[in-house]
Please model this.
Amino acid sequence: MLDVSHAPFDRTSIGLQSSPDERLEKLDKPNPKQGDQPAGPPVDDRPVSPFDPHIWMWITILFVAYYFYVDQARPKPERISYSAFKEAVADEKVESVSFKLDQIRGQYLNGDIAERGFVTTIPGMPDNSLLPLLEQKKVIVTAETVSNPTWLDLLIGIVPWLFLAAFFVYSSRMLQQRMGKGAGGGLFDFNRSRARLFEPDQQDVSFDDVAGLDSAKQDLKEIIEFLKFPERFQSLGAKIPRGVLLMGSPGTGKTLLARATASEAGVAFFSVSASEFIEMYVGIGASRVRDMFAEARKKAPSLIFIDEIDSIGRIRGTGVGGGHDEREQTLNQILAEMDGFRGDEPLIVLAATNRPDVLDPALLRPGRFDRKVVLELPQKNARMEILKVHMRSVPTEPDVDVEELGGLTTGFSGADLANLVNEAAILAARHDERKVTRADFLEAHDKVVMGSERPDLLLPSERRRTAVHESGHALTAMMLPESDPIHQVSIIPRGRSLGVTEQLPLEDRHNYSQPYVEARLAVMLGGRVSEKLILGSISSGAADDLEQATRLARLMITQWGMSAEIGPVHFRDGGEHPYLGYELTQQRDYSEQTASKIDAEVKRIVEQAEQITSSILEENQALLGRLVDELIKRETLDRTAIERIMQIDESDQSSQSMVDAS
Model:
């Protein structure tokens, strides 16, 4: 199926998808000088624990071995039939018998077999003649009780409790190990804080390692100065913010910036994820919050970092449980602890989130998280600095141009750039190269943006339709001056796409003019119009093109005021999350009549863009056919190759005009 993959305005990636279903602490080991200790294996002076499993394993093995030895050494009684038993009694060969349930055990009067005795089973039918016979032959008769001996009853009463105690000891140790407490805590130590403490000498991240966040670092320098020189602020009666909220898209470096802030300040750093406060039992999260703040006050000056605070800091009263569930109790405790700061207490809380819209207002009011630091996606210069940081340990060839890579990575976050460098290094290692080349970075870029290649996916007929579709996108973009420049067009299937037309802006955009948005609409519809013009039919590949175009046209009308019919008004018609890009469902604030007008205007704008695209491709149909043929032959064309094809076409047209004139 031909489709256009969704991408931000800053980096357009128009492609074809394969099918509708697919869319759906370091160990500080001493290094003693030679001669400090005698040679030989180290001696383990640790005391042996009575709960060592190896000791109990050997005790069990010895007990089982002794039991089997004694059991085999004991003489086994002879098993005889009941008739033989009565005959032996009648012949006066039996000295004594003992009854137990349905068995009779006895001893003979003499003979070698008397040492072993005998055993027989009483028949199911009662034998009333047996006891008189035994009395007549003066055989000693005894009976054994069926109750367990005292030692066995005692063992049965004690062993389950021993197993239960052992289970609790084992569970306690496993719980301590999983929670990182080792062997130093107790069974009920799970209410202690899970925050990881980094002392100043354990921190190796500085602001030099955080590239591209100059404004955020400037905001945090005041925090660093307060932690270093609190008396400077206190002498003037100033109060440092108690909390700083880091807001930004995933991968923009919120956690790294918090670590660098603590390292620059040279203070203790407590790091914890907000989800670690929540447990099955109500009250555990609040207890962990109290313990964390108590530990931080002992280490003051210190800095507490709570990652993903939106997992516990959501607006209260919206979930099941009212105000008494575990999450809300934990949030209440955080609010109480932050209110409990003294004005001169050198303790600051940093928190990170990519969902600031869902946070409780009480968490954001002055006196708690006083400052909000927004971490945006890096611009070109910032991307170049970030790439340099990640390329410090990567040997590269001289042909690697950081400025070129910074231009190719519009819309990348810091984590995306780190992934790009890593993918390039992996590709170089697979190619058995000593250094990473420019080609490795370009291939890694295509892999990160579009996915891995799937060259054998397309059928010949699908391959031509894909080329027609992508050529329509590319030629429309080349002919519209307001459109972003073409970077490359390819019909090699990658990821879920069967083909892709990639556009890269010359600069990072933060504002979109109406001509630019209309040009984007025309480019989105280029694939569908090209199929209809060249092949005489359309396919399902334009589904994502139409989805993007419709969404963009609706934004133009309802939020950007780019419709003369609707006018300069704003209608709430859903909205994207500012950092995640997800559309959030909201109740609309306009009537059905207005909704009909909006729908009609959306249709008009999209059809108008389609007419513009049709006129462009019809006027350049010969050039479009040549571009399709060249794309089928070479599979991938960059901007230079497309421009060369267009120049050849212009030369042919000039020659034809001269012939016609003559």
Summary: Residues 150-178 form the longest helix (29 residues). The chain has five domains: 12-18+457-656, 73-143, 150-178, 192-375, 380-450. Confidence is low (pLDDT under 50) at residues 1-12, 15-44, 180-187, 320-324.
